[in-house]
Amino acid sequence: MTSAQQGPNDVSVQFVDPPTRTVAIADARFVYRELGTQHGGIPVVGLTHLGANLDSWDPEVVDALAESRWVILIGYRGVGASTGSVQDRFEDMAADVIAMILALGLTRVDVLGISMGGMVGQEVLRQAPELVERVIFAGTGPQGGPGLTSMTAVMVRSILRGLLTFTPVTTLLFFTRTSTGRQAATAYQARLKRRYTGRDKPVTPAVLRAQLRAVNRWGHQQPAANTFTGPALILHGGSDRMVPRENVEPLISRFPHAELRVFADSGHGVVPQNRHAITDVIKQLLQR
C-alpha cells in the first residue's frame, strides 16, 4: 500500500492497475483506490454495497467512468484492509466518508452510491451538502423505505441457498433467475476476478452483521430533512429483492431535480447487469 501523499496527477484508467492507498484519519487508516485523471473535473467518489470491499466494484463500470473522470473508490472503517472497528450506523459511516474527502484535499465531489453506499451517500448529503455536486444512487432506499427491515432475512436465506448449491451469494442476490439474469451473473463473477494482485482483504462475518444492523436501523427511521437540490440520478432493478422496487417513489421524491431509470428483468445488481447503458446515462449526468 502507498500513502495518500504519493498519489500521481494522472492515474491508471484500468481497474486492475491502481495500487491500494491509505489515508490516516484519527484512530484509523482507510484504504482507497483512484483511477482516471485528476484533470477530469469534479472527482467521482464511489461508495460500495453491503458486504463489499474495494475488489467488489465491477471493473468495466469503473473503467468506463475513468475514461474521462477522476474516480476514487473508498473503503469503510473496519472493512477489508481499512483499520478500526466496523460501524453499524450510516451516520457514522458518512462522517468517515466526509473526513476522507477532506483528508484527500477535495472540496467538491460527485457521489456514486451502490445499495448500502446510497444510504451512506444520503447521510453525506444530510451532513455536508456543500461538498456534493451530483449524486448517482443505484439499488438503494430512503430511511424507512419499504422492505428494508427484511434485508437480513433475505440475506440469510440466500447465504444458506448459496452454501447448498455452491453458488456465489451475489449471484443469488443481485441477478434475476431468467436466462438473461443467469448469463449476466456468470459474466459479472468472471469480471470480479480480473484483478490478480494487490487485492483487498476479505470481508468478515462481523462486517456483514454490523452493516445489516445499520440497514435495519435505517429501515426503522423516519426520513430526515433533505436540503440537496443538485442533479440526481436514481437507478433501480425492477425485480430487486434486497431493496424492493417500492423504494423508488419515496426516494426520488426527496430530490427535486432527479432522473429515474428502472431496468426490467434486473435485480439488485442493476448496475453490472446493465453496465453499458448505465455508464452511458451516468456520463450524461456528469456532463451537466
UniProtKB/TrEMBL annotation:
<dbReference type="Pfam" id="PF00561">
    <property type="entry name" value="Abhydrolase_1"/>
</dbReference>
<keyword id="KW-0378">Hydrolase</keyword>
<dbReference type="InterPro" id="IPR050471">
    <property type="entry name" value="AB_hydrolase"/>
</dbReference>
<feature type="domain" description="AB hydrolase-1">
    <location>
        <begin position="50"/>
        <end position="270"/>
    </location>
</feature>
<protein>
    <submittedName>
        <fullName>Alpha/beta hydrolase</fullName>
    </submittedName>
</protein>
<dbReference type="InterPro" id="IPR000073">
    <property type="entry name" value="AB_hydrolase_1"/>
</dbReference>
<dbReference type="InterPro" id="IPR029058">
    <property type="entry name" value="AB_hydrolase_fold"/>
</dbReference>
<dbReference type="GO" id="GO:0016787">
    <property type="term" value="F:hydrolase activity"/>
</dbReference>
